[in-house]
Amino acid sequence: MEKKSFSFFEKNIYERHLKDIFERKEKEIENLRISSKLRQNDLENLLTIWTHQIKTPLSSISLISEREENYDIKRELIRIDDYIASILSFIKLGQDSLDYSFKSFSIERLIKDIVKRYRSFFIHKNLKLILDIEDENIISDSKWLGLVLEQVLFNAIKYTDKGFIKISYHNSILKIEDSGIGIKKEDLKNINKFGFSGDSDKRDANSTGIGLFLVNDILKKLGYEYKIDSKEKEGTVFSINLKKSGIIEN
């Protein structure tokens, strides 16, 4: 049987179609949530339908890309999947309670699992990955903390065209450092606001403007302090203090 491959033209049409669906559903859900017209059961039903609409074609395309070893499509699928996860998390954060599950886990394992997910991006952009991790078990919510790390790491990858990304963990401080384009001083105070798009986001037409908004909200709910140090054209360092309210196991 002849293998069917995606041309560049077909791939772009598919990506634009998914992006249009995503933006339409995002606006629909947010408008309903803000107007308080969406009951909890309605919300769950809408999310189920929306997730099915998006993830079913994504799964099919993912299988094809694996068979053909088409890493360009694979990277785009990861991007789209991240956008879906972002908006679903945004909806969950708007609810009265989160599905917290505090358990003991290895911080090194969490970091390495997340890095593995984005390995094709490092290869594609020829970025050097530096891991400097003092492993220990912490008690926290690995799902929500993992989402934070995914958002921060993906931002670092997006805005670093050459050089390195370093992830370190020592004395309960987790840092993600990059040699990317950095953030303007006047933009730093606004980057965690919903929908904010500074100069860096103008390079990414697919940016949703909710990544760092989610990060800020999740870390507040988990009780962790964080800070962002950045210089334009030099890079950014995102630091999280996991000792503030989390429990470090000896």
From TrEMBL:
Enzyme class: transferase
GO biological process terms on file: cellular response to phosphate starvation
Catalysed reaction, written as an equation: ATP + protein L-histidine = ADP + protein N-phospho-L-histidine
Stretches assigned to the Histidine kinase domain: 49-246
Pfam families linked: HATPase_c (PF02518)
Annotated organism of origin: Anaerococcus hydrogenalis DSM 7454
Keyword Kinase: yes
Signal peptide: none
Name of the protein described by the UniProt record: histidine kinase
Record's subcellular location: Cell membrane
SMART domains for this protein: HATPase_c, HisKA
Chief location bin: membrane
Domain of life of the organism encoding this protein: Bacteria
Gene3D superfamilies: Histidine kinase-like ATPase, C-terminal domain
GO cellular component, one term: plasma membrane
Membrane association type: Multi-pass membrane protein
Keyword vocabulary terms for this entry: Cell membrane, Kinase, Membrane, Phosphoprotein, Transferase, Transmembrane, Transmembrane helix, Two-component regulatory system
This enzyme's EC code(s): 2.7.13.3
GO MF term set: phosphoprotein phosphatase activity; phosphorelay sensor kinase activity
